Every structure is written in structure tokens, then in C-alpha cells.
Amino acid sequence: MNYFSILYIVIFLSVLLLGIWIYSEKNLKGKYNKLINYLSFPLALLGLYSVFRLNIDFSYVLVSLIIASLFLWILGRSTSLKKLAKESRSFFIILSLITIFRSFIFEPFQIPSESMIPGLEIGDFVLVNKYEYGLKNPIGNQTLISNKSPDRGDVIVFTPPHTKCNSEIIKSYPKDSLQTISRDIEKSWGELKKSCSSLGLKYVKRVIGIPGDVLEIKGKDFLVNGIKVVKSILNSNSRETFYEESFGKENYLIRKSKLRELSFYQSWKIPEGFYFVMGDNRDNSLDSRSWGLVPENNITGKAQLIWLSWSSYGSFPSFGRNKIIK
Q1: Is 198 tagged catalytic?
Q2: Where in the sequence of the chain do the CATH 2.10.109.10 domains occur?
Q3: Phi/psi at 206 (5° precision)
Q4: What is the mean pLDDT of the chain?
């Protein structure tokens, strides 16, 4: 049984329990309501677990719950079930406020990989500024009101095209962005798409190239519009080297491994509406070097603040890494 089947069963049982609850409340003076409440709690947890495993964007879940609570509010008023109307109205208001905050102001995001070490580590919870690049529709991520565009050095959260099952390679490699799209690139992109989902997966990386840039990658160095990006060594040992990378007014830390060194030789012309991104852990990051460019419409927002760090379920959450993201 797959997780979609489990989710459908959860929805069916939830509707069934709701019907029993309404019958109990109207005809049996709430005789079975306490039992129904006990059954509803594990059912809700199972539903949330299925949503998590299916990688469904939580915006869709929130909007669905708002519609459901509005329906129950209307149902409660029309059937004179004051308890149902009161509780569903409370849920509707609370969920609406959460959705507005999450969709238009800040959205939480947990760092899933090592690709942004040393700045961001696995288990860091970050707040993503949703209004930095404009107000977006909570369903579909379409921009409603434009603001400024991402700049070089920004750390952004986005959905790479290759993680969406219905996406085509042109979404990552638009016309004239590369001189040629080789069979190796097409094969690599196809292999990465095997782990796709219908809504895609969210990544976090740093913007390196913006629309209009000509970006050249030569081994471990890169040039933007013919100017080599400056790197200064801060610390080095037998396993790794840490640099400070300077990008205009932006300075941030990057890591390069001495155990797994990746080298690329490519030249990109970044077209309008696309961005080139890389992980700060340069030798351990799947990014634009591997799967192409990020369309502007796929950008969720700017990662702005680490507010919690929880590296594993076997450890305690910590506020020791709270900081503004550079």
C-alpha cells in the first residue's frame, strides 16, 4: 500500500467519524464524542505522516484545511450544531492567519543536506522571507505583486525543474544558455529526474549568476562577466579548506574538500528569468553545475534567519546557531 492510498483512507475515515460525531451530537447527546476524539488524534498523525512522505507542499494542506473548516462552520450553523460551528470557526480563523503568514511573510524550511556547509548545517531550521522577491500565490507559487529580484550572493529556497516529474529539460537548460546540450547532460538530467515528484522538491543554494551574466567555470574557479570571483583562505587542514568568497559587497564562507574534488569546465549565458545557483560546500553539492538553471517562478524566497537547529531526532533542539544568514 502506497502513501496516497493511506492518505485516501485517512480522509475517508475522517469523513466517516465526522458523520458519526454529528449523529451522536444531535441524537445521542454526544454519547460517543469522547471516543471519536480519541480515534481522531492518531488518524490526524497518520495523515500528516502521509503528507510528509509524499512531499506535498504544506500550502496545499493548509488551503484544504481552511476550505474544510469553512464547510464545517457553515454546516454547523445550518444544522444548529453550536459546538461544531464554534470550533470550526476557531480553526478557520487560526488556519487563515497561519496561511497568510506562511504564504506572504515567512515560511519555515529545514536544511536536509550538507550542501550549504559551513553556513547552513543539516537540521538547521531557517525562516524564508516570502515578500523579499514579491508576494506569491500560496497555490502554484505564481507572483502576485513583484518586488526586487534575487541578487548575487543571496541564499534562496526554490524548486529545481528536474525534481518535477512533468518538467522538460528546456526548463533547466533554456535556449542559448549553454553552447550545446550534450547527450551526457541529457542523460544526467534524466537520471536525476528518477527521484522526481508531482510538486517537486525544495532546495537551498546561493545565487551565483543572475539574468544577463556570462558565467565561466574553470575547475574550482569561476568568472562573472570576465571578472574572477575573489577567494581568501581562512583555514586549511588535510581534509578541507575554508575560504571567504567576495561577491561585490557580499562576503560569505565556502568549503572545498581535499577528499572529493569536483571540477567543471563550462560557460553559461544566463537568460532573463533564470538564475545560476551553487552550494557553499562546493565539492558536495548538486546544483546548477549538475542540473541547470533555476526559473524565477520556481523561487520560494530568501533564506534569512536560522531560528532553530535540530540535527537528529536523538538529540535536543538547540538555539545555539541562531543567526542572520549571510
Answers
A1: no
A2: 106-324
A3: -105, 135
A4: 86
